[in-house]
UniProtKB/TrEMBL annotation:
<dbReference type="GO" id="GO:0016747">
    <property type="term" value="F:acyltransferase activity, transferring groups other than amino-acyl groups"/>
</dbReference>
<dbReference type="Pfam" id="PF13508">
    <property type="entry name" value="Acetyltransf_7"/>
</dbReference>
<dbReference type="InterPro" id="IPR000182">
    <property type="entry name" value="GNAT_dom"/>
</dbReference>
<keyword id="KW-0808">Transferase</keyword>
<feature type="domain" description="N-acetyltransferase">
    <location>
        <begin position="18"/>
        <end position="159"/>
    </location>
</feature>
<dbReference type="InterPro" id="IPR016181">
    <property type="entry name" value="Acyl_CoA_acyltransferase"/>
</dbReference>
<protein>
    <submittedName>
        <fullName>Putative Acetyltransferase, GNAT family</fullName>
    </submittedName>
</protein>
């Protein structure tokens, strides 16, 4: 079930009005399949977290244009910081909507949500073809490039962030489904 629109919207560099908000896993599944594994209708995004997680979508005029998921998961290199490490997974933007700032707005909104949930690191295995995108958003590559079968060359990318501390009843700890 797609959640109600946010109370605010962002504008992309291309002048598009982007509504970034929390969604369910199933809301983004078809878009992920089309973008991340085109031609493989049987593929399902491997997502089975054992910790806190959330999914976000970027909408243009009520059309889902980009998706991303975040979950608490230690980074492979065990970066030591005050808050939990959050892994970014399954980022996908409609091919015709790429390079319009939509994915960047969604990524930044997701990182802000991680910060609200006391995260100090966001990391991912990003495709090397998307490396420039991630570097533009503050991610740094670590280690060697490696191949994921049927997905291509990837590298470990890490971004350090400052947690936003909330006290009392306003702390956001709820899970998304």
């Amino acid at each position: 079930m797609i959640t109600e629109p946010a109370a605010y919207a962002k504008h992309s560099p291309a002048g598009l009005t982007i509504d970034a908000r929390l969604i369910t896993f199933d809301d983004g599944e078809a878009l992920r399949r089309r973008v991340l594994r085109p031609g493989n209708n049987a593929w399902r995004f491997p997502f089975s977290p054992s910790s806190d997680f959330f999914h976000m979508g970027a909408f243009i005029e009520h059309h889902l244009a980009s998706v991303v998921s975040f979950l608490i998961e230690p980074s492979p290199d065990a970066f030591s910081h005050s808050g939990p490490n959050w892994r970014l997974r399954g980022m996908a933007t409609e091919p015709g909507m790429q390079s319009h700032g939509i994915g960047g707005i969604l990524l930044e909104e997701g990182v802000l949500e991680v910060s609200r949930r006391n995260g100090s690191i966001v990391w991912c295995y990003g495709r090397t073809t998307a490396g420039r995108f991630y570097r533009r958003h503050g991610f740094q590559p670590f280690g060697d490039v490696f191949d994921i079968p049927d997905a291509g060359l990837h590298s470990l990318l890490v971004r350090h962030i400052e947690p936003i501390s909330f006290s009392g009843k306003y702390s956001r700890q709820a899970r998304s489904t």
